[in-house]
Amino acid sequence: MNKKILLVDDDRDLLRGMGVSLRASGYDVVIAQDAVSAVMTARNARPDLIVLDIGLPGGDGFVVMERLQNLPTFIPVIVVSARESEPNRARALEAGAQAFFRKPVDRQAFMASVQTALSQPPTSLGARSSSSA
After folding, report:
1. Which sequence spans correspond to the domains of the chain?
2. What is the predicted pLDDT for the residue at 11?
3. Which residues of the chain carry a pLDDT beneath 50?
């Protein structure tokens, strides 16, 4: 069974391009274009990974990450954003993102990050370790 990735972005061209790359690498892709549908799709589709934009209609990516913490199983998140300030990067990583990429994304580095995030065994929220480094 292929790993399922939820792509969340309001930029249709980016969704199309990333979707093609991920599907070509053998992943199943589901799409959401705003914060509300991102959370609902994550609950219903149970993806193995979420690729999340920060600037979304209906709430930003940080709100989505906060709401995802209520899910019974941890879903790794990779943030892809045009908002590349150090505070946004630090905030995303502190909120649990596995990686942070600035648009336009370096495809090779992004795909390596996807593979790394998907190679980690799934855990329940209670089993997640939190680091305070």
Report:
1. 4-120
2. 93
3. 124-133
The neighbouring-strand residues paired with 51 are 7, 78
Just give the CATH number of 4-120: 3.40.50.2300
Please report the pLDDT score of residue 48 as a whole number: 96
Cβ neighbours of residue 7 closer than 8 Å, sequence gap 6 or more: 15, 18, 19, 22, 29, 30, 31, 32, 51
Both tokens assigned to 102: 């600035």
Question: Cα–Cα distance between 123 and 108 in angstroms, integer?
Answer: 27
Q: Which residue has the tokens 């690498």?
A: 25
pLDDT score, position 83: 75
Distance, in Å, from the CA atom of 78 to the CA atom of 83, rounded to the nearest integer, reads: 14
Residue the block writes with tokens 């596995």: 98
Ramachandran bin of 79, using left for φ above 0, alpha for ψ from -120 to 50, beta for the remaining angles: beta
Q: Per this entry, what is the length of the chain?
A: 133
